[in-house]
Amino acid sequence: MEEDKKEEIKIVKVTEELIKAKTYEVRGYKVMLDFDLAKIYGYSTKAFNQQVKNNSERFASDFAFKLTKEEVNNLRSKNLTSSWGGSRYLPNAFTEQGIYMLMTILKGDLAVKQSIDLVRTFKKMKDYILENRELIGKRELLQLSMETANNRIEISKINSDMISIEKQISDVVEGLKDVVTKSELADMMNSFISDDDEKWLMFNAKFSSADEVYESIYRQAKSSIYVVDNYIGLRTLVHLKNSPTGVNIILFSDNVGNNKLHNIEYTDFRKEYPTVKLSMKKTGGIFHDRFIVLDYGTADERVFLCGASSKDAGARITSIVEDYGTAKYNSVIAGLLKNSPLVLPK
């Protein structure tokens, strides 16, 4: 009987078209609804929601919420939900972060497969937007970039707890130890980590999420962060947005190459994150390598050598290593601090 039940399960192919068709906007969020997600994962809606209820502590209000009658009627009036039929129940809606959290509670080979396909499809959709950035406004692009980074970091945090990627992000692991167990996403994330399209680099001789490595380094700063990198972009700013409050950040760059940072993006970033103390100076065209210097001129000074620009981190095989001989950089940084401000193009 069990084998017959398995054969009856219709596997829903996860595609960009499916995600677009099953994504609605409610309360300012892009969401998917419980009955659509249940079909994707091979559950009945009742069994799906029971799993969510059993793990309710994992679903914050910005991860999942129940629709009101007015919201249901509004969606029905737009002919978006014909699959509801005559059901009177109020469905649960899941944001993208909520969908990632579902991956920690839904079990079985099909759930693992569908989770992998969902992650990859979300990534393809976002990459398409970023690759076609000229088709949308810069302000919209900035917001999309922020959301993309946040979502990738959510996955990186879960992944870190399972496979102990790096000591330097142990604070993230500690924060999640009561939420996600090490075994729950192991199969899915092991497949995910081997995907050649993902953004991974070598840090301290281990493959790690590129975005999480940069953020983990920046979070260790106590007084200052100096980034020397001639190629900067939106992703450079995104990595810095969660830096410790009060830390003085200076980007040293000549802002060269394609898709360079523009003033409108920088201005919007400053408005979005007013507590980030960020300024920019020129490098003077004499730097090829990239550096991150934390807490310059103090006993806590640290220097990291970066094999690629942060905006392209993980696109090719590269690495970040710490150089413990910080004294030799003092004259270099002292010279950079005298340089004139960097003026971004409009």
UniProtKB/TrEMBL annotation:
It comes from Agathobacter rectalis. This is ORF6N domain-containing protein. InterPro entries: KilA-N_DNA-bd_domain (IPR018873). Residues 22-105 form the KilA-N DNA-binding domain.
